[in-house]
Design goal:
The complex is a heterodimer. Chain A is α/β, with parallel strands linked by helices. Chain A has four domains: 35 residues; 199 residues, 3-Layer(aba) Sandwich (Rossmann fold); 100 residues, Rossmann fold (3-Layer(aba) Sandwich); 25 residues, no CATH class. In chain A, the strands form three sheets. Chain A has a six-stranded mixed β-sheet, with helices on both faces. Chain B is an alpha+beta fold. Chain B contains two helices and five strands. In chain B, a hairpin with a 4-residue loop joins strand 2 and strand 3. Chain B is globular and about 35 Å long. The chains are: A alpha/beta, B alpha+beta. Chains A and B meet through strand 6 and helix 7 of A and strand 2, strand 3, strand 4 and strand 5 of B.
Chain lengths: 417, 80
């Protein structure tokens, strides 16, 4: 691990060896990976990165893994597309979509779990574990399968069947937990203390979280080695948001980007917006909330990185927006109908937040803006099932089709009129 | 003896109450504060509790019933 030197407390800066630990023994602050940026600046170049694989592992030197034995299901290097039609609808001329719906398990979680599972195996773990209501469960199960590790996945007992299946297919031990969300949270913290497992977002969290930096690296590389003016991101724990920012700043620090003046824009659903609420109140203190939103992948009432997300908004002179569930559905539909991308509810939050801020003039028309779409809509079909047009049903004749089409067009023009 | 690391979030009306002292006193739990931020209208405290497992559990239940939010120091770990 030539470029990774230690773990360091984000609060008191105490250093620790690269062990499976996540909080400082002294102040209980969160730990973060420290790199040797001088060596990275010396050894890495745009060219050397371009020679790497078309996955997150092209940035391996900037990730906290030791050797060559990577757990690789081909996460990352997802498309960055110019969104002409969505941009037109929102009044933005330089809008891009980073489409992370097309990762192997259909969400950005593959980036973090690829790093966590690789590091977990290096640390000698045989078991990968997580608690999840969807995206993380599928990704952990898939990576464990690929790595030949055992997987324990804790899910709420009332989780929708489709989401259970999305993890069950990879053969983990799925544990459905009765009780409230808070009780499940407490149980998982206790489990992580009790068993020698790699609980991806608990004891190996410092490594896991670093995987999200690759979204920042990729966007910069795909833009021809420049940082966007605005990055619009959905927030749950806040980790993704802070790591995209960290990724961009690191590229500047090692000389691969000349300038990073990106304004980091945070978006949440109003039914669970502890970070935006604090931002709007001008406070650096997060008040935990009980989530109540259709954007379930963002439903973290007590976000571990909330404070650091607020600091990122502050440092980057960013902004934030919280949007209603109705706006989330409209956002999903708008993205699908203009760009052909079917996003899950978190994507609806981003598009709706983007619309709000563009309309308010907070994002200028000519600004190079990247919207991060982090998960696939097939995972949250229930959110939009009642908001799409039903098919036209006809007898197998030409006249039946023509009559039905006329009826549909008449209804459409009556609605428009 | 068991140890537990927790975060207490206090509502405004409990800021002036000696909740942590009473927790230690009533339930024979050693309370060891590591980080805190308390202002006149809100406050949080990160601390370690040491005592018998069931004493910690009943003590934390008493704290919750007072109206203090009790979380693991990791924040929410059930992810989307």
């Amino acid at each position: 691990m030539p470029y990774v030197s230690a773990l360091r407390c984000r609060e008191c800066s105490r250093r620790y060896p690269l062990d499976p630990i996540h909080v400082c023994e002294f102040c209980f602050g969160p730990l973060e990976v420290v790199y040797d940026y001088e060596a990275l600046a010396r050894d890495l170049s745009r060219k050397s990165i371009a020679r790497g694989p078309l996955s997150i592992w092209r940035y391996r030197e900037l990730l906290p893994v030791l050797g060559e034995d990577l757990v690789d299901i081909n996460a990352g290097f997802t498309p960055l597309i110019k969104a002409h039609r969505l941009g037109q609808a929102l009044g933005l001329e330089e809008l891009y979509i980073k489409n992370d719906c097309v990762n192997p398990t259909y969400s950005f979680k593959d980036r973090v779990v690829a790093v966590a599972s690789t590091r977990a195996r290096e640390l000698g773990f045989d078991v990968l574990a997580c608690a999840s209501t969807g995206n993380l469960a599928g990704s952990v199960a898939a990576h464990a399968a690929r790595a030949g590790m055992e997987a324990y996945i804790f899910i709420p007992s009332d989780l929708e069947q489709g989401k259970v299946l999305g993890a069950a297919i990879y053969g983990p031990t799925l544990v459905a937990v009765h009780g409230s969300y808070d009780q499940e949270n407490r149980l998982c913290s206790e489990l992580a203390d009790h068993y020698r497992w790699a609980f991806v977002n608990i004891n190996v969290r410092p490594y896991y979280a670093e995987g999200s930096k690759t979204l920042g690296y990729e966007v910069a590389e795909q833009l021809g080695w420049r940082a966007p003016d605005f990055a619009v991101v959905p927030l749950a724990s806040g980790s993704l948001f802070t790591k995209i920012w960290k990724g961009l700043k690191e590229l500047q620090q090692i000389g691969l980007l000349d300038d990073v003046s990106t304004h980091m824009v945070a978006t949440q659903a109003t039914g669970c917006s502890p970070i935006i609420t604090a931002y709007e109140a001008g406070s650096m203190n997060i008040r935990p909330v009980k989530p109540n939103t259709i954007a379930k992948s963002l439903a973290i009432g007590n976000p571990a990185d909330g404070y650091y997300a607020l600091k990122t908004i502050q440092e980057s002179e960013g902004a934030g927006a919280a949007v209603s569930d109705e706006e989330v559905v409209e956002g999903i539909k708008l993205l699908a109908e203009t760009e052909g991308i079917f996003a899950e509810t978190a994507g609806g939050v981003v598009v709706a937040g983007l619309r709000r801020l563009a309309q308010a003039g907070a994002i200028p028309r000519q600004a190079l803006t990247v919207a991060f779409i982090t998960g696939n809509g097939l995972k949250t079909q229930e959110a939009v099932a009642e908001h799409v047009q039903a098919p036209i049903t006809i007898e197998p004749t030409l006249s039946a089709f023509q009559e039905a089409l006329e009826r549909r067009q008449a209804t459409a023009s009556a609605r428009a009129g | 003896m068991a140890k537990r690391r927790v975060m207490f979030t206090f509502p405004q009306e409990l800021i002036t109450q000696p909740v942590i002292y009473n927790l230690g006193h009533k339930y024979s739990v050693v309370t060891n504060i590591r980080r805190a931020d308390v202002t006149e209208d809100r406050g949080w405290v990160v601390l370690e509790l040491e005592g018998k497992e069931d004493a910690i559990d009943t003590g934390l239940q008493w704290v919750r019933e007072l109206g203090v939010r009790v979380d693991p120091i990791e924040g929410d770990v059930v992810a989307g």
